[in-house]
Amino acid sequence: MSLTSLPLVEISGAPRERGRQYGEQTRELIERALAYYAEAFAHSSGLTWEQVTQRAGRWVAPSRAFAPELVEEMEGIAEGAGLSFLDILALNARGEIIYDSTFGSMEPDGCTSFALLPEASGDGHVYAGQNWDWRNGVADTVMVLRVVQPGRPTVIMHVEAGQVGRQGANSAGIALNANGLGGRFDDSVGVPQTLVRRRVLDSDNLNAALEALTKSRAHIASNALVTHRDGFAIDLETTPGAVGWMYPAEGLLVHGNHYQAFMPPQLAATYRPGSADSLYRVPRAEAGLRAVRHASGRDEARKLIHTAMSDHLGHPESLCTHPDEGQPAVKRWATLLSSCVDLTTGDYLIAAGTPCDHEYERVPWNLYDGDTL
């Protein structure tokens, strides 16, 4: 199955078995991802991929302690794809590797996330979504993954091939949208973001989802916007130290890649936003999404969301990001996809690429189909 050019993969069963299914179905995509990151880290740090995976071994113990079932799933992915476990772990910890000074320097993810509650959506629905901005070189590794796991909510996510978590929503009506945040805190080793985010999406209630963020000791700072179908949203700026939070204003919440809720004390004296464009992406998204409250129905609401997320102020580093031809190919950024999940109806919509060039399409699974709880 495919959504235009975006692969759709469904896995089910116990952790290791669903991992094997994942690896078998996406072997070629995972190999592309490995090839890209081998080039990217060689460019930024001079390290070989073998050196990267050796150093990535530092995340084995915290990952196994936090989510042993997801480590099993990663082991299954490696088996199914005919790769080593450390290859898959490195793909899942690539954000942590980027921030680790021993690996050189690569920029963190860009993204602009939003939540629209009934009072702001025009049609009375609850929406959650984002523009996912990252290296254009991984565009052909992006996929949609549906995970059916008895005893836990069914999860739909958009991920890079080989990853067990990133952004998505589940059959309990919980959506997670995430954004990179900058700043170094200390040298302790924490849990990779892909595992923290998957734990949120594996949660069958809002409290468990928030505890996955507030009680875990993540390795890096990251923003998480959690939306619930009952008309609630909260944004948590999680760090290896403190956690900050903020709520919607008049039913609208938007977050980018800079601290908006609080300033971690470890960074206060020297903090500078890692993504300068985040400083205008956020107000531009807010301005565009405020128009949605005037929509006359569902179709118009979704069209207005799409229009808002297609904004080009600051092009190419805009809300809808395009590759900068002045940069080396390995460093070019783009909006890899734009997502819009209707938590009221269960429709999971994706524009597979820059939203200005691609319409929202509905994936073939409804969020609330096949709930295994």
Notable features of this structure?
373 residues, alpha+beta, nine-stranded mixed beta sheet, six-stranded antiparallel beta sheet, 12 helices, 32% helix, globular
Question: What do these coordinates show?
Answer:
With 373 residues, this protein is an alpha+beta fold. Helix content is 32%, strand content 24%. It is built from 12 helices and 15 strands. The protein has helices at 15-25, 27-45, 49-56, 60-66, 68-81, 85-92, 94-99, 118-121, 193-201, 206-214, 278-290, 298-308, and strands at 2-3, 6-12, 110-116, 127-135, 142-148, 155-160, 167-170, 174-180, 222-228, 232-238, 243-246, 252-255, 333-342, 347-351, 361-362. A 9-stranded mixed beta sheet has the order 1-2-5-6-7-8-9-10-11. The chain has a 6-stranded antiparallel beta sheet with strand order 12-3-4-13-14-15. Helix 3 (49-56) crosses helix 6 and helix 5 crosses helix 6 (85-92). The longest helix is centred in the first third of the chain and has 19 residues, at 27-45. It is globular, with a radius of gyration of 19 Å. The protein starts with a strand and ends in an 11-residue tail after the last strand. Residues 102-106 have low confidence and may be disordered.
Please, what is the average pLDDT?
A: 93
What is the number of strand segments?
15
Low-confidence stretches: 102-106
Radius of gyration: 19 Å
Percent strand: 15-25%
Distance N terminus to C terminus? 26 Å
Strand order of the largest sheet: 1-2-5-6-7-8-9-10-11
Helix content percent band? 25-40%
* Overall body shape: globular
Q: What kind of sheet is the major sheet?
A: 9 strands, mixed
Could you spell the SSE succession in H and E letters?
Answer: EEHHHHHHHEHEEEEEHHEEEEHHEEE
- Sheet/helix structural class: alpha+beta
Number of helices: 12
Pfam families: AAT
Protein name: C45 family autoproteolytic acyltransferase/hydolase
Keywords: Acyltransferase, Transferase
GO molecular function: acyltransferase activity
